[in-house]
């Protein structure tokens, strides 16, 4: 009896040792593979999304060595490190940008009864929010001054009801507002009267900053308005940053004592003059710029800026858009200023977008998720997605009927909503190694201790991703952002839920999340064509 027990023990011990040997061998192979790919300095730099100095189109290490593990089955090998990099995501990173004339189109005209669907759709993005009100209407708006004729170029007048609507919205969604002040008119007393009305009417506690003008770098390029004798430009040829700085300083001297934002440029060169702007106006706190991936009115299909789905989903429109900002983000931060893209969307010149069939498709949601991550990775402190009624890139449209407010939610809003879930306030980016191609992968570590991995498939065919995370006993779940195709304008679901043809609440149902099985930290995920997966562990 004792002899039989001894034999059984020896056999068990042999089995245990054999199993440990296999595990150690597998770990050794895995370590060697990771070490090999990590030993390439270029690959090591690309693995960290915050490093952002290498070639922006080839983000991710080349898969030169794959471990003898589940990843050997032919899928895309992706690994996520556990050490966060870069700053925590600030509150108010993702917000909305509205034209002055668009505010009450969304809120309704009665400040006491704001459109509850619009309010809820904003709340879904997280609180507090930073909302920007400006755009082209900045330089076409004024606060009427008694005894002063309406200045040329003005087509919108602020009213007490407008101010009350803005204040009510800021209170309802716990928002700070960046408010544009007319600079094109070149009349400092008019600008001062407008700013005084805005700050007193909205409330200084709701004002993040006053923004001086809108895209002054193209004042001499695009017409300000059409006069009796033809097109009128806000400035003559040769108007430059130094001219703007002097004028901004003269105007700012008359404005209320709140922080200032600017220069709200359409292009990038003026941003190299941040020190000049600070010298002329020490109250500058937020550097602002506008970015669009494509040009909506472009007629040349061979141009990379032509409004097509292929161009929108290219690396130029996401990685390239963000990488171009790196030197200016660094310059702003070096001077203690925050940097905000306070006007962003898929294709500029909204009047042409109805014919394009790009900005209102599901492809815009895929682009939005990847672009927001890219902007966060290069240190941008905040982004405002621009909207105005009738634009092809509008995230939502509203109507008020006998039954109350109804909203049609467009695909791009689903992308904004997924990003807010995947990169919550306080979370930090985790380094990711991913092969170059149409599958983009981002990972974050939240203050709640959860790791979230976002996998974006911009391809028209499916891909299998072999995702490696450190082994953990914690279960993981998958949530999907899907649509019938990249060109779909409806049928979008997030977590299996949809706002449908219309929503009267602005709320999605409880998301469907499926368990994700792992083997020693490996997850095999089938990514359908044109889809996003969010793994949370």
Describe this structure in words.
The chain is of the alpha/beta class and 537 residues long. Helix content is 28%, strand content 25%. The protein contains 13 helices and 25 strands. β10, α8 and β11 form a beta-alpha-beta unit. α5 crosses α6 and α12 runs parallel beside α13. The longest helix has 37 residues. It is globular and about 75 Å long. The chain starts with a helix and ends with a strand. The N terminus is likely disordered.
Number of β-strand runs:
25
Into which percentage range does the β-strand content fall?
25-35%
- Overall body shape: globular
Strand order of the largest sheet: 2-3-6-7-10-11-12-13
Helix and strand arrangement:
Elements (H helix, E strand, L loop, with lengths): L1 H37 L2 H7 L28 E5 L13 E6 L3 H5 L8 H8 L5 E6 L6 E2 L13 E2 L2 H13 L2 E7 L6 H15 L4 E6 L12 E3 L2 E3 L8 H12 L7 E6 L8 H7 L3 E12 L13 H4 L6 H5 L2 H9 L3 E11 L13 H16 L4 E6 L8 E6 L2 E6 L1 H12 L5 E3 L1 E2 L5 E7 L5 E7 L5 E6 L7 E7 L10 E2 L19 E3 L5 E6 L3 E6 L1
Helix pairs in contact: 5-6, 12-13
Characterize this entry briefly.
This protein has helices at 2-38, 41-47, 103-107, 116-123, 160-172, 188-202, 241-252, 274-280, 309-312, 319-323, 326-334, 362-377, 411-422, and strands at residues 76-80, 94-99, 129-134, 141-142, 156-157, 175-181, 207-212, 225-227, 230-232, 260-265, 284-295, 338-348, 382-387, 396-401, 404-409, 428-430, 432-433, 439-445, 451-457, 463-468, 476-482, 493-494, 514-516, 522-527, 531-536. It is α/β, with parallel strands linked by helices.
């Amino acid at each position: 009896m004792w002899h039989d027990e001894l034999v059984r023990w020896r056999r068990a011990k042999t089995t245990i040792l054999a199993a440990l040997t296999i595990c150690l061998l597998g770990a050794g192979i895995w370590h060697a593979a990771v070490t090999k790919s990590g030993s390439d300095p270029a690959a090591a730099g690309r693995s960290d999304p915050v490093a952002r100095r290498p070639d922006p189109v080839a983000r991710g290490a080349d898969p030169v060595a794959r471990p003898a593990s589940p990843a050997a089955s032919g899928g895309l090998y992706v690994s996520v490190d556990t050490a966060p990099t870069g700053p925590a995501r600030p509150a108010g990173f993702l917000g909305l940008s509205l034209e002055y004339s668009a505010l009450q189109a969304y809120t309704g005209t009665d400040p006491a009864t704001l459109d509850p669907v619009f309010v809820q759709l904003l709340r879904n993005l997280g609180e507090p929010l930073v909302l920007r009100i400006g755009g082209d209407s900045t330089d076409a708006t004024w606060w009427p001054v008694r005894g002063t004729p309406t200045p040329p170029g003005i087509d919108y007048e602020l009213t007490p009801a407008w101010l009350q609507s803005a204040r009510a919205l800021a209170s309802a969604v716990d928002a700070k507002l960046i408010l544009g002040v007319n600079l094109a008119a070149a009349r400092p007393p008019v600008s001062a009267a407008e700013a005084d009305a805005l700050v007193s009417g909205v409330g200084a506690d709701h004002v993040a900053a006053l923004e001086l003008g809108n895209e002054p770098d193209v004042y001499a390029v695009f017409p300000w308005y059409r006069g009796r004798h033809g097109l009128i430009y806000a400035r003559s040829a040769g108007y430059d940053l130094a001219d703007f700085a002097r004028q901004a300083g003269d105007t700012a001297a008359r404005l209320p004592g709140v922080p200032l934002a600017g220069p709200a440029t359409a292009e990038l060169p003026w941003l190299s003059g941040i020190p000049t702007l600070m010298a002329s106006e020490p109250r500058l706190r937020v550097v602002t710029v506008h970015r669009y991936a494509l040009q909506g009115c472009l007629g040349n299909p061979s141009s990379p800026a032509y409004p097509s789905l292929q161009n929108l989903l290219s690396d130029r429109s996401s990685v390239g858009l963000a990488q171009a900002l790196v030197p200016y983000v660094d310059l702003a931060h070096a001077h203690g200023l925050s940097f905000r893209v306070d006007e962003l969307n898929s294709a500029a010149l909204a009047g042409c977008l109805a014919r394009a069939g790009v900005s209102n498709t599901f492809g815009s949601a895929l682009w939005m998720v990847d672009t927001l991550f890219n902007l966060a990775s290069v240190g941008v402190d905040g982004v405002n997605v621009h909207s105005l009624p009738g634009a092809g890139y509008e995230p939502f449209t509203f109507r008020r009927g006998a039954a109350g407010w109804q909203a049609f939610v467009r695909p791009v809003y689903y992308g904004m909503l997924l990003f807010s879930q995947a990169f919550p306030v306080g979370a930090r980016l985790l380094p990711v190694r991913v092969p170059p191609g149409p599958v983009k992968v981002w990972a974050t570590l939240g203050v709640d201790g959860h790791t979230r991995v976002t996998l974006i498939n911009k391809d028209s065919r499916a891909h299998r991703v072999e995702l490696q995370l450190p082994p953990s006993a914690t279960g993981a779940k998958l949530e999907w952002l899907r649509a019938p195709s990249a060109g779909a304008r409806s049928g979008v679901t997030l977590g299996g839920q949809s706002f449908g043809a219309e929503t009267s609440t602005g709320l999605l149902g409880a998301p469907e999340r499926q368990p994700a099985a792992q083997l020693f930290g490996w997850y095999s995920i089938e990514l359908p064509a044109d889809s996003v997966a969010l793994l949370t562990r």
